[in-house]
Write a structure and sequence with these properties.
By secondary structure, the protein is mainly β. The protein is 7% helix and 59% strand. The protein has an 18-stranded antiparallel beta barrel. The N terminus is likely disordered.
């Protein structure tokens, strides 16, 4: 059974490391590796300002040139029964247009540990710490807020999974993951009031091995989301309501229940696919309300030729949101049914020139309150060209695009970013 456990658990890791490691990222083929990127950039809307600002609302657009510096370090250990991957990256962006707070900083620390306890049992531990201003960096899964946020904003994800095979055919999976979000901005209607939370999820699934590379499963997951801020969801003055009618963040606490079926498949070291499809039920117990919607997470990764890879994915579920209270309304939007579809292609045009294209589309349908039934549509994409000067040094240039359109007034924006620079890995 050891072969079954190792094949199923390491499929994703093996797929990620097929082919050459991109220059500018820590190598996964060395025990220790360091990398760095130096870029000049232009950002057409660095504060994610809205298209039509009004007094007291979100700011208008502001543009800037700047410099981006990103060093990183990686550690990897692969033994017969143990795999360890660690990456720590730091980013500093200087904006020429700003007269105060002209520097943004972010930190990413990513850890994976997989260990075979015996021939039929495997333990996997994951942790990811993020410190950032950017919404797409702070998000896990679907994006709950599309706006850049000033201050020290932290997200930490931790997870542990135990995989146990009872025979060549049957097995079980047990897991827990917890995610903490903490925004520096505090006060009624602040980022903290809307989005600070601690998410706990516990899962159990029965697994059936149809062949060494294919596992089907049926499972259940229980979640507890605790909105941790003590502030109100909106300022009473801004909402035009007496304080007693504007609830605190804990009004949106909820229990969640997921039932799903799924499959994990790794035909070769170049192809891996995973899917979970089912139903999600959220019980907002303080609001005496509930929501039911579809739940799905599916992804596919395929190395179709040397140094060329395509990735596809989709997810849908009920997520927290930064939309809560409309002026003059005492009802509260509790969450959104969000669906994201994404794709990416990394293609080796020549032995030295590589193109990378990625795109994502998200639809968020708001549930409850004055915004019930209103929808956000968000698109982001980026294109990158990398030319290898040597085995360790490369030139790069790229473009990123973001666009948010919304049924909610004063919410939409677009953003264009371009950059060029050099990167190295040793």
């Amino acid at each position: 059974m050891k072969k079954l456990i190792t094949c199923a658990s390491l499929a994703a890791v093996g797929t990620m490391t097929v082919g050459a490691q991109p220059i500018g990222e820590p190598s996964t083929s060395k025990t220790w590796s360091v990398a760095a990127k130096l870029r000049g950039f232009y950002d057409s809307n660095y504060n994610t300002g809205v298209d039509n600002p009004v007094a007291g609302g979100r700011p208008g657009k502001a543009e800037s040139w700047g410099i981006d510096v990103r060093p990183s370090v990686g550690f990897n250990m692969v033994q017969d029964t143990t795999v360890v991957n660690l990456k720590v990256a730091y980013g500093l962006r200087w904006y020429e247009d700003r007269t105060a707070n002209e520097i943004d900083q972010d930190v990413l620390a990513d850890l994976f540990l997989g260990h075979d306890l015996n021939e039929s049992t495997r333990l996997e531990v994951k942790d990811q710490f993020v410190y950032s201003n950017e919404p797409t960096v702070l998000a896990t899964g679907a994006i709950s807020s599309y706006y850049r946020t000033d201050g020290t904003n932290i997200r930490n994800y931790s997870g542990v999974n135990l995989l146990k095979d009872f025979s060549e055919v049957w097995g079980i999976g047990l897991g827990y993951n917890g995610t903490v979000y903490n925004y520096e901005q505090e006060g009624d209607g602040s980022r903290s009031a809307l989005l600070d939370r601690w998410e706990h999820k516990f899962n159990i699934d029965a697994r059936r091995h149809f062949q060494p590379t294919t596992t089907g499963l049926i499972g259940y997951q229980f979640g507890l989301t605790d909105m941790t801020s003590g502030d109100r969801l909106a300022s009473p003055a801004a909402a035009g309501l007496p304080p007693a009618l504007v609830p605190t963040a804990s009004f949106r606490n909820y229990y969640s229940h997921y039932g799903y079926v799924g499959v994990d498949h790794s035909l070769t070291s170049k192809l891996a696919a995973s899917a979970r499809v089912g139903v999600q039920y959220n019980d907002y117990y303080n609001a005496s309300d509930d929501q039911v919607g579809p739940y799905a997470e599916a992804s596919l990764s395929y190395w179709y030729q040397e140094n060329s890879r395509v990735m596809l994915g989709v997810l849908t579920g009920i997520y927290p949101t930064d939309v809560a209270v409309a002026p003059g309304s005492a009802s509260v939007t509790l969450g959104s049914q969000a669906t994201m579809v994404y794709a990416a292609v990394s293609h080796a045009i020549t032995s030295r020139l590589t193109a990378y294209v990625r795109g994502a589309w998200q639809m968020s349908d708001y549930q409850g309150g004055a915004f019930d039934g209103q929808t956000d549509y968000y698109v982001n994409a980026d294109v990158n060209l990398t030319y290898d000067l040597t085995k360790n040094v490369a030139l790069e240039a790229g473009y990123l695009f973001d666009d948010l359109s919304s049924d909610i007034a004063q919410r939409g924006y677009d953003r264009h970013r371009g950059y060029a620079g050099v990167k190295a890995t040793y």
